[in-house]
Amino acid sequence: MKQQANIFRWQPVAAASARSYLLLTATMLTVAANLVGCNAHKPNAQSAAINFSDCRLKRIDSVARCAMVAVPEDHSDKSGAGKLINIHVAVLPALARNPEGNPVYFFAGGPGQAASDIGGLVSALGDLRKSRDIVLVDQRGTGKSKTLTCDSTAADPNADPLKEAFSNSDASVLRDWAKCVATLKGNAATHRTDDYIDDLEWVRKALGHDKINVWGGSYGSRVALRYMKRYPLSIRAAVLDGVAPTSLHLPDDALATSEAELRSTLAACAESAGCAKAYPNILATFDTLLAELRTTPRTVNFAHPASGKLITGIVSDRSLVSLVWPLLYMPEGSRMVPSLIAQAAQGNFAPLAATMTASSIGEGDISIAQRFAVMCAEDMLGRTPAPNPRFQALNDLFYGFCKGFPSGKVAPEFFEATTSDIPTLLLSGTQDPVTPPAQGSLAAKTLSNSKHIVVAGVGHITSPQPCVRRIITKFVEAGNIAAASDACEADLKLPRPLFYTSPLEAKP
Fold it and tell me: What's the chain's Rg over C-alpha atoms?
């Protein structure tokens, strides 16, 4: 479950082609009781012609029920004559003989991650399914909701992301992205967060759900907050993990807090006797290496960690921070950073490159077109990159991708805080580099019926923690914030893992 938590991040950029680079940088049945366990949903006009069939989802052991549902591409067109698009919906039936009528809808992260791809997290929170259906709607443009595609996102199943990461220049990255924009299929202007929320409302009504519970992780928490604001009568209770309110701008804010987490990690190394001895002045070492690579990218040769075949490629300042950034998302990764930087500074980039092979995110798991349909419309439109010397190469590249991309726009109201009395549980990890506790505290200010739990020593996404899972289940079962409590909260203080002082040894 530790790796699974990574899927909810604002995906860091780790590969060098536009496709690979941004990879590391959603219905309903003919309503009958026997199709989703013992639930009996009331049929209506929207659900009458929709049929579910058995299906399998990643990291889910049991059979799910899936369907494609036609929804308006532009929900603002009330004529009924507008274009329809198909989105994918999966239902995991409740295990109880007489389940509750308010299911749990899960919203994935990214942006660009499909809800049907987060089976590991859904499985970790499996206790929720004892009494409620789980509903997974692939956001338009993600997963099996293939409503926004381009040629560069058609991943070659034989492509090696690690090899690509070291074989493409900045110019080729931009050329690949230009090809994506030129071959774009679908209307990017109708693939914003609010378009997804309108799809979710369509699904909720079609399934006959009066009220639903929602879980949103990282970008999914933004979806949840907007859903709470726009359709407050539809939501019974909300869980927000790795809170990303609409006032958080990508990539600027995420990169700024990531840079701060990098400094914090390397400062912790300096305060550790073993780490400081093994890697003295490690921040200065990193900055020197970064400056050198910015001026003169380095040609590197190393054996592929999986195949053993020789890889020859180029390492630049951008590729360095692209490889380091994902490691900051979890303490288990950040504990390796000093050692990996030190080895890279000595010319050995193989250990740092090998960390790419440990990712739980596959080449086809993130839709880069959908990612920028959201980010260009909601985060970067009308803005310029914020200064961030250590991560500037990434910031500039993100903004470059939005130039000429046919994204939509959002009204100024979009960025206003969600004010709500819906029972809301907010979760943050103290070592989260992109959605730190400050973002959860900011969102909680206008959520009058909320509780914010900060888990010490945990990075991005805390829900897989056993104690947090227990609290979430109790909260959703009761539907009130008073139930979001457990004696185990006193133990939610995990120490920072010891740093590796050699490839095989960790010391205090």
Answer: 22
The amino acid at residue 147 is T
Residues pairing with 300 in the sheet: 313
- Which tens digit of pLDDT belongs to each residue from 455-505? 999 999 999 999 999 999 999 999 999 999 999 999 898 899 999 998 766
Integer distance in angstroms from the first to the last C-alpha of the chain?
Answer: 26
Q: What is the DSSP string of 47-107?
A: TTT---EEE--TT--S-EEEEEEEEESSTT-TTS-S-EEEEEEEEE--SSSS--SS-EEEE
Average pLDDT of span 308-332:
91
Pairing of strands 424-429, 235-241: parallel
Could you read off the pLDDT of 221-279 as tens digits, one per residue? Answer: 999 999 999 999 999 999 999 999 999 999 999 999 999 999 999 999 999 999 999 99
Pairing of β 298-303 and β 310-315: antiparallel
User: What distance in Å separates the CA atoms of residue 267 and residue 282, rounded to the nearest whole number?
Assistant: 9
pTM of the model: 0.89
Q: Measured between alpha carbons, how far is 139 from 153 in angstroms, rounded to an integer?
A: 16
Q: Confirm if 197 and 230 have CB atoms less than 8 A apart.
A: yes
Separation between Cα atoms, residue 440 and residue 462, nearest integer Å: 13
Pull the structure tokens for residue 303: 């054996």
Q: What is the dihedral of CA 433, 435, 441, 443, to 10 degrees?
A: 170
How far apart are alpha carbons 266 and 272 in whole angstroms?
A: 10
